[in-house]
């Protein structure tokens, strides 16, 4: 068994695609219309295009419990998911230069360094570096 993909609920798939590709550096993998203007929309790491996919899922607009859960996590300051990076400080500085807003600046927590940013689509996302 292995992870092939994760879903991240987004409030606007077009805005999410722009943010995840132009700011975070992912590349679009799949963009398939499904119903009611929604899409099966996935992105992957540029350096691992056959690796795990991130599904930019329109669930909050179609399933009220998903919207409530997403809002509760964000209101509590809890990241929806995390992405590994080689160097949190460098990634933080790169993203700040692209006007990405961080709720947690680079912070060492035991054997990892983390930072948390707003993905502009209803979520906080944590980046993590193993020290």
TrEMBL record:
Residues 2-130 form the VOC domain. Pfam families: Glyoxalase (PF00903). It comes from the Bacteria. PROSITE patterns: VOC (PS51819). Coiled coil: none annotated. This is VOC family protein.
């Amino acid at each position: 068994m292995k992870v092939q993909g994760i879903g991240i609920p987004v409030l606007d798939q077009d805005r999410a695609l722009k943010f995840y590709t132009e700011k975070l550096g992912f590349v679009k993998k799949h963009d398939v219309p499904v119903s009611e203007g929604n899409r099966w929309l996935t992105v992957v790491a540029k350096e691992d295009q056959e690796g795990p996919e991130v599904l930019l899922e329109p669930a909050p607009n179609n399933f009220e419990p998903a919207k409530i859960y997403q809002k509760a996590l964000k209101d509590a300051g809890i990241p929806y998911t995390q992405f590994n990076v080689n160097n949190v400080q460098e990634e933080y500085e790169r993203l700040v230069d692209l006007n990405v807003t961080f709720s947690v600046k680079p912070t060492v927590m035991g054997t990892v360094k983390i930072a948390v940013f707003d993905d502009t689509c209803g979520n906080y996302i944590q980046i993590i570096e193993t020290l």
